[in-house]
Model the fold of this input.
Amino acid sequence: MKTTSADIALEFIDRINSHDLALLCGLITEDHVLIDAQGRQFHGKREMERSWRACFEWFPDYSIQVDQAFANGNLAVITGCVMGTYLIHGRLSRENRWKTPSAWQATIRKEEIAEWRVYADNEPIWKIMHEKRYAGGKPVQREPAPFRQALVNHRNAP
Done:
């Protein structure tokens, strides 16, 4: 049976859900591009490893639940939900849990993910992070560097 683009994208999601960075980065191209829901681009395998590490530090229970997968040539589209809990001071509290409908588009090259594009309403996530991070008007913890600027940009957005 031939491997489809959807099969590869689903394998990538399995690797994301495993939180195993070596496995995860083993399925992306050296020139991989991730385009997040705000349109920011992250380039290259090293940047992706740092970004995923930060994501798993922020959200130790981060996972993707797949509803449907479609393939057309080298493109795959996955729909479902992404969920996690924002870690504060080493604790996972139910009040910091979020879940949001999402879709992902994968461009496959030589059975690896060359581009991963995320479509999601991240507002519930940013709201929790902003409320918890700036409790009492001052930062309560420092986020991992790859995403720190994204949080600052979101807080300052109109």
Q: What stands out?
A: Helices lie at 5-18, 21-25, 45-58, 123-133, 145-156. The two ends are 51 Å apart (CA to CA).
